[in-house]
Write a sequence for this structure.
């Protein structure tokens, strides 16, 4: 009798598991159609990178892709763990009378691992991973396809637009101390965490909303148009590398010396990162690859944060995103990564890609 009951229970569990796997597989297959625009952009980028690599005789660049992919999965497991821990704390705080283990099991299976969420996450992650293989290849190939030739013009444009002074000279009284530079660099590095958080927020959603589709498409489109197209046509290295590629006086030599002196007191990660990036550029390979200044994708992506926050209806997130975007723009100048015009161009490209992705998705849905 007991054996019969056990066999029956086993069959029920197997049936439930099989049904869940079937629903998940169906959701994943259906997701290829709903993510068709995203995959089209991804495959086009990868194809361009492959053809460019064959033309230039260089291999596809994996560079930061492996690091970003590993970090993405670490964040995924961290978010799931924090989600369950938060539920456990809430149940304890509210005096939950049921079984915490059963409640967490329901949360994990029926929400976190719901077929639609698994499918949405898989498509977002796969598209992102394949895209950045192509993206990093094109970015690394920029100075090979079109040698750096715009830095002096961008410097002069910066001076003309800012009343005869370079933007970092305006900012020096506020951000010239070693402590201020250190704090600016800490905030600049936080950009990657915020970028990842927004990507997870939309990529890991249970429901494939219009906002999710628009953000993911605009996100990849901004990188493609910004760096792969505009960055190639306006090939430039940035203020931190100005002295290596432009003959004559270097108007950024004092800024770079200031950053090095600050790094002797506080860790200013931009200094060793810039040195490593330039060595990788000269060697043609390295852990950090791809020198490109115009436009600033740090600034461009923060504009997407603002637009996404506005569509979501969270006012506090709009304020946070706006302040953060401004701080990243300042940091890109103070740390010598970008000309101010790089930031202006990045913002305009992001806005255009947001509008274009919204228009395209409405047209496809119609």
């Amino acid at each position: 009798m007991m054996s019969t009951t056990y066999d029956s229970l086993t069959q029920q569990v197997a049936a439930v598991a099989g049904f869940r796997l079937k629903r998940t597989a169906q959701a994943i297959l259906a997701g290829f159609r709903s993510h068709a625009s995203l995959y089209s952009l991804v495959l086009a980028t990868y194809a361009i990178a492959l053809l460019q690599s064959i033309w230039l005789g260089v291999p596809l660049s994996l560079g930061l892709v492996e690091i970003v992919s590993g970090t993405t999965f670490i964040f995924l497991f961290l978010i799931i763990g924090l989600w369950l821990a938060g539920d456990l704390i809430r149940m304890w705080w509210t005096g939950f009378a049921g079984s915490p283990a059963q409640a967490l099991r329901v949360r994990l299976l029926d929400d976190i691992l719901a077929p639609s969420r698994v499918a949405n996450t898989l498509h977002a992650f796969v598209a992102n991973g394949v895209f950045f293989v192509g993206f990093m290849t094109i970015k690394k190939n920029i100075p090979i396809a079109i040698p750096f030739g715009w830095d002096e013009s961008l410097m002069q444009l910066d001076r003309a637009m800012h009343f005869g002074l370079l933007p970092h000279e305006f900012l020096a009284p506020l951000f010239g101390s070693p402590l201020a530079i250190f704090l600016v660099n800490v905030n600049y590095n936080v950009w990657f965490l915020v970028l990842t958080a927004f990507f997870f927020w939309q990529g890991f959603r249970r429901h494939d909303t219009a906002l999710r589709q628009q953000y993911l498409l605009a996100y990849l489109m901004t990188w493609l148009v910004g760096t792969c197209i505009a960055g190639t046509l306006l090939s430039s290295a940035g203020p931190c590398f100005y002295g290596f590629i432009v003959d004559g006086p270097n108007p950024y030599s004092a800024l770079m010396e200031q950053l090095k002196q600050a790094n002797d007191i506080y860790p200013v990660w931009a200094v060793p990162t810039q040195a490593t990036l330039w060595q990788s550029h000269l060697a043609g390979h390295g852990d950090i690859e791809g020198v490109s200044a115009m436009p600033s994708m740090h600034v461009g992506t923060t504009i997407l944060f603002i637009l996404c926050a506005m569509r979501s209806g969270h006012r506090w997130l709009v304020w946070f995103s706006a302040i953060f975007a401004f701080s990243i723009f300042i940091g890109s100048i103070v740390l010598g990564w970008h000309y101010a015009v790089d930031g202006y161009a990045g913002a305009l490209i992001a806005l255009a890609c947001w509008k274009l992705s919204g228009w395209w998705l409405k047209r496809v849905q119609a």
Remarks:
- The mean pLDDT is 87.
